Automatic annotation (TrEMBL):
Family matches, as Pfam families: FMN_red
Source species of the chain: Bondarzewia mesenterica
Biased composition annotated in UniProt, kind: Polar residues: 7-21, 39-51, 115-128
Lineage: Eukaryota, Fungi, Dikarya, Basidiomycota, Agaricomycotina
Coiled-coil regions listed in the entry: none
Domain of life: Eukaryota
Annotated protein name in UniProt: NADPH-dependent FMN reductase-like domain-containing protein
Gene Ontology CC annotation, any one: membrane
Residues in NADPH-dependent FMN reductase-like domain copies: 170-243
């Protein structure tokens, strides 16, 4: 039998301490693993995080729906006035339906079966400004003397009440009927807006809405430039312009089978060189669409 030497025995005996010495290393690694344990313990938290976010977003969706419903219940009461100036009757003459503004009024009148009441309105009977009643037709004052109008063979004015600058704050939205003078709006409209300095200073018209319809003598006589000229005045007052656009009138505005007024800026008509032409059926159709879409737009705004 062979026995290990004393030195070899000691070496063999040292194997146990060596293993025991490596134990702390293993323990250290265990401690490191245990130190990372909190990170592993956060995994359940991370797994529940989507559930928390879902539960958090669920109640948040309810107010959005309810706010939309609230908006829908309050989108039916703007006060709208159709304000015109006309010299030869192309922009408006009551109560014949072949004139431009009338179809717009039919679309704007609501609720069905209810007639606007009358009230004192700058000394003239005009529709009430009650929130459930839509305003009607009115016209701005003439600036030319009757002698000049007679020489110009201008017919009698429509029997609409006079709309003064001081009446503007009483309404939420307007559709302005504007004839053309040399591609611009006429002096009568200029005089009207020049008298609104006090309203401009106080910001009384800020946030209101306006649309336009135009009358010109011929194609290219100001169907668009007249509307563009009005933009400066509307912008200075903070009045938002509501254009007609193409979405609902593409087929009508792009119809090349006949000469017709109207543009994405608003409905329009041609008077002709002798001022005898009346709005065509196509022009009236465009005007009707504008009245309907304008009302739908302003009804979504809280004034």
């Amino acid at each position: 039998m062979c026995f290990p030497s004393k030195k070899q025995g000691q070496n063999l005996a040292d194997d146990q301490p060596t293993q025991s010495k490596s134990a702390p290393t293993t323990a250290t690694n265990t401690n490191a693993a245990s130190a990372s344990a909190p990170v592993q313990s956060t995994q359940p938290v991370e797994s529940t995080q989507p559930q928390t976010s879902l539960s958090a977003t669920a109640p948040a969706a309810a107010p959005i729906v309810s706010s939309t419903a609230a908006t829908e219940t309050t989108m039916s009461s703007p006060k709208v006035a159709i304000v015109i100036y006309t010299m030869y009757g192309h922009i408006g003459k009551p109560p014949r339906l072949h004139q431009l503004p009338r179809p717009s009024r039919v679309e704007l009148s609501r609720p069905a079966g209810r007639q606007p009441s009358t009230s004192a309105f700058s000394g003239n009977p005009l529709p009430s400004t009650d929130s459930d009643v839509v305003g009607g037709h009115c016209r701005i004052a003439e600036t030319l003397p009757q002698e000049v109008l007679t020489k110009m063979h201008a017919p009698a004015k429509p029997d609409y009440p006079i709309f003064a600058p001081a009446d503007l704050p009483k309404f939420d939205a307007f559709i302005f009927g504007v004839p053309t003078r040399y591609g611009n709006f006429p002096a009568q409209w200029k005089a009207f807006w020049d008298a609104t300095g006090g309203l401009w200073m106080s910001g009384a018209l800020y946030g209101k809405s306006a649309g336009l319809f135009i009358s010109t003598a011929s194609l290219g006589g100001g169907q668009e430039s007249t509307a563009i000229a009005m933009m400066s005045t509307l912008a200075h007052h903070g009045i938002s312009f509501v254009p007609l656009g193409y979405k609902n009138t593409f087929a009508q505005l792009t119809n090349l089978d006949e000469a017709h007024g109207g543009s994405p800026w608003g409905a329009g008509t041609f008077a002709g060189s002798d001022s005898l032409r009346k709005p065509s059926a196509l022009e009236l159709e465009i005007a009707t669409i504008q009245g309907k879409t304008f009302w739908e737009h302003v009804s979504r705004i809280k004034y």
